[in-house]
Amino acid sequence: MGRTFTRLAHQLVVEGKTVDGLRLMELDVEATLGKVWLISEISQVFLGNRRPLKALTYAMRGLTLKPDDIDSQAG
User: Fold this and answer.
1) Residue 18 belongs to a domain with what CATH number?
2) Which of 20, 30, 40, 66 is 20 to 30 Å apart from 60, CA to CA?
3) Does the pTM exceed 0.85?
4) Is residue 28 part of a domain?
5) Please, what are the averages of pLDDT over each run of 10 residues along the chain (75 residues)?
6) Which domain, by its residues, includes 33?
7) Rounded CA separation 72/68 (Å)
């Protein structure tokens, strides 16, 4: 899990399968709890899909894990 799942999730979102793409990202985050870049990524995707409360939930999780590093790990 990780970047491959993230790319697949993004592709699903691009194809209009937003719910499937976001769920795939959530499953990936649940399986790899310590990956701050992934948590930041899912937060950005939720925000871009007009789900700010869900985005905030993940952003706060990332900040809790690594408060000084969340932005630098995205990408």
Assistant:
1) 1.25.40.10
2) 20
3) no
4) yes
5) 77 90 87 82 88 92 77 49
6) 3-67
7) 9
34 belongs to a structural domain: yes
CA distance 55 to 13: 15
In the block, tokens 């937060």 appear at: 43
Phi-psi bin for 20: left (phi > 0), alpha (psi -120 to 50), beta? Answer: alpha
pLDDT at 75: 46
In a domain, 25, yes or no: yes
Distance CA 57, CA 15 (A): 25
Cα-based angle 2, 48, 26 (whole degrees, multiple of 5): 35
Cβ distance 41 to 28 under 8 Å?
no
